[in-house]
Amino acid sequence: MNAKMTNATLEDVRIAFRNFSGKEGKYNREGDRNFCVLLPEDVARQMQNDGWNIRYLKPREEGDSQQAYLQVAVNYKGRPPRVVMITSRGKTNLEENMIDILDWADVVTADVIIRPYEWSVNGKSGIKAYLQSIYVTIEEDDLDRKYGDVPDSASSATIEQGYSEESEDRY
């Protein structure tokens, strides 16, 4: 491991095994929010040489190569990460109670900054990757683009309330 690890900026990467909601599952404890970044082999080698915990998926078919990845923890205790969703309408900052939308979104690409945390327990040590920032570009379908400018339900409720009060005054 290097003496002082620095943040890793990864641009135009694919993300997989998304669990931004922290749901319990076969490979996840309840409350542990995380996702994996799929890495090109050259980047994976360099990060592994720097001390990051790079893992490999087995090839799906004979003749395929292994896919390198890095699991990234999403933690809101202490310094929360910056999570931004990019659509045709612009960017939306996602707060902790909103990021689970990324579990189901059609992600085109992501730009990520990962913060290293060097740990040591009972003679074992390693580096855990924590999310500092992520900008996620979302694929929108035709209806998302068509109705993207329609006010959301909070705005609609205000409009409907005003309409009801106006109607009552007329009768």
Describe what you observe in this structure.
- It is built from three helices and eight strands, in the order E-E-H-E-E-E-E-E-E-H-H.
- The radius of gyration is 21 Å and the shape is globular.
- A hairpin with a 2-residue loop joins strand 7 and strand 8 (124-138).
- The protein has a five-stranded mixed barrel.
- Helices cover 19% and strands 41% of the residues.
- The protein has 171 residues and is of the alpha+beta class.
- The protein has helices spanning 41-50, 142-146, 153-170, and strands at 8-19, 33-39, 55-57, 67-74, 82-87, 90-93, 107-121, 124-138.
Can you count the helices? 3
Q: Please give the number of β-strands.
A: 8
Could you tell me the radius of gyration in angstroms?
21 Å
Strand order within the widest sheet?
A: 1-2-4-8-7
Largest sheet, described in full?
Answer: 5 strands, mixed, barrel
